[in-house]
Structure formats: C-alpha cells, structure tokens
Design brief:
- The protein has two domains: about 160 residues, no CATH class; about 120 residues, 3-Layer(aba) Sandwich (Rossmann fold).
- It has 13 helices and seven strands.
- The chain is about 55% helix and about 10% strand.
- By secondary structure, it is α/β, with parallel strands linked by helices.
- The strands form two sheets. A five-stranded parallel β-sheet has the order 4-3-5-6-7, sandwiched between helices.
- It comes from Hymenobacter cyanobacteriorum.
- It holds the Pfam family MerR_1.
- GO terms for molecular function: cobalamin binding; DNA binding; DNA-binding transcription factor activity; metal ion binding.
- Keywords: DNA-binding, Repressor, Transcription, Transcription regulation.
Length: about 300
C-alpha cells in the first residue's frame, strides 16, 4: 500500500532527493516501480527501509555497510541503537517506521522512552507533533492507511490521559478553563495536550471533549464560571462559518478570553471578536498560559 514520489520520500524522511537517487543507483537500496510515463514510484516498504537506513546513518553507520543488510538485520540494528534523547529527527523516523509496520509494542516503547528522557511535555512538542505533521503530509499524498493513523492516535491519547491523571489535584480556586471541541469535531489530541499543559501549570480545567454543540456552552459557563474557553478547529465548523462560530462562543462565555486553535481559526481575512485569540503554534499557547498564571507573592 502506498505510492510515493521521490519528493514525498524527501519530505517524509529528511533525506535529499539526490541522495536517495544515489543510494538507489549505487546500492540498490530501494525498489521503485515506474509509471507509464516513466516516473519512479515508491511503496511503504521503500519508505520504511529509507527511514530505518536514515536512523542508522545518523548514528554513524556507513551507507555502504547498511545497504548490505537485510530488512530484518536493519530493523535489529535500529532497535540496538543507543538513542540520543535530543535527536528528535531520528526518533520521529523510528516512530514513523514502527507505525508503517503496525508495530504497537515498538511505538509504545519509543513514546515511553522519549517521555522518560525528555519529560512528557517536551516529548509531545518535539517528537509527537513533528510525527503528526509527517503523517499529515502522507495524508495529502494519499499514502497513509487510516488504520495506521488510528493506531498512533490511540496510543497518544492513552499517553495523554495517563499523564494528565498522574498530575496533582488542582484546587477549584485556581484559574479556570473550559476546553471543548465543536459539534462534529473529533480530532482531540491537541485539546488533550492543552488540558495537560494547563493542569501541569496548576490551573483548573473542565474538559468537555469532542462534539459539543455551541448552544450548550452558555449553561456550562454560567455554572462553572471559567476565566477562559479553549477550542480546537481542525475540520469543524465549515470555513465560511468560523466567524459566526467565534461570535457564538464569545457571547456564550460572557466576553471571557476565548482561545481558538487550529488552521481554520487562522484563515486569511478572518475577523474575530475582540476577546478571541488564535495562537499559531502550541508554544504560543504555552506562552499565553504563562501570561495568565497567578503571580507569586514574595514572603
């Protein structure tokens, strides 16, 4: 399954196209097929092999040595690598290769190891998010199996829930945030991570999750009395209804701060209510939290 051009391989692996061609011609590393118009196309096995070879070369192995190995030997060598906690590119490649193989055990091990070495938040920012961006490129190319993406999303969701549950209890007197996804919106990972980062910083959250009609938000805010409301717009609402949706959220929360995250909230020409902000990156959201953390009073 999967048909990649050489430019797709370059984007997904980080290996330059001319290097891929050289490895293919000199070492027979990949086995592309040619289209009727004589264009090379590569399959999932080619991508997986290239990712693993890239990992070994980044660890100091010579391509001439690696190219002589079988797929099983390459995989064993990758598993035996001494991982550098700050070599994010190598970790992303290893995770992507494991996903393509439906290797749940390996995926779980790699996520756990990265979290142990980096801390959970850095693992999400520097490993998980770049991995999800790579998968997004694969979606655009039409070369990712939905089951592979579901496997990865399920594992990350489990990790986020477990990490959040392990945090200390936050008093209800802390600054309050409501987190929800719009009606019919099911892409939850970013919102789960936002929930984790808020709680890790001692702020109270009411996590409402997926598919909440905006009409229900006013009653929630009247009871919970949040200081801010957060939502992520990945596929919902429709692009031409985002401004209307933002106005409805703003009115429902009594003009409190509204955070709209996601590409739909950053479309060109979009006019948002004055109390709405749309951080471009997750690190921008973390900076926003810092702005709203209570000041420590010196003794």
């Amino acid at each position: 399954m999967g048909h990649f051009s050489i430019s797709d391989l370059e984007q997904l692996s980080g290996i330059k196209a001319h290097t891929i061609r050289m490895w293919e011609q000199r070492y027979g590393l990949l086995r592309p097929v040619r289209t009727a118009t004589n264009i090379r196309m590569y399959c999932n096995d080619d991508l997986r092999r290239l990712l693993n070879v890239s990992t070994l070369c980044s660890r100091g192995k010579r391509i001439s040595q690696v190219a002589c190995l079988s797929d099983a030997e390459i995989q064993a060598a990758v598993l035996a690598c001494c991982n550098d906690a700050h070599d994010y590119h190598q970790q992303v490649n290893a995770l992507l290769a494991a996903m393509l193989s439906f290797d749940e055990q390996r995926l779980n091990y790699l996520f756990t190891e990265a979290a142990d070495k980096l801390g959970f938040e850095k693992m999400m920012l520097f490993v998980a998010y770049p991995l999800l961006q790579r998968i997004g490129l694969m979606w655009l190319a039409g070369t990712v199996n939905p089951a592979q993406e579901h496997l990865l999303a399920h594992l990350l969701r489990q990790k986020l829930l477990a990490a959040t549950d392990a945090l200390p209890t936050v008093p209800t007197s802390a600054r309050r945030w409501v987190l929800f996804l719009p009606a019919h919106e099911l892409h939850e990972l970013a919102l789960l991570f936002m929930n984790y980062t808020l709680r890790a910083r001692g702020q109270h959250t009411l996590y409402l999750g997926q598919n909440l009609p905006v009409e229900e938000l006013a009653a929630v805010c009247a009871t919970y009395q949040p200081d801010a409301v957060v939502t992520v717009l990945t596929s919902q609402p429709e692009r031409n209804r985002v401004a209307e949706f933002a106005r409805a959220v703003s009115a429902s929360c009594g003009e409190k701060l509204v955070v709209l995250y996601g590409q739909l909230a950053r479309q060109e020409g979009l006019k948002l209510p004055e109390n709405c902000v749309s951080p471009e990156l997750m690190t921008d959201f973390l900076a926003l939290i810092a702005q709203h953390e209570p000041e420590t009073v010196a003794a």
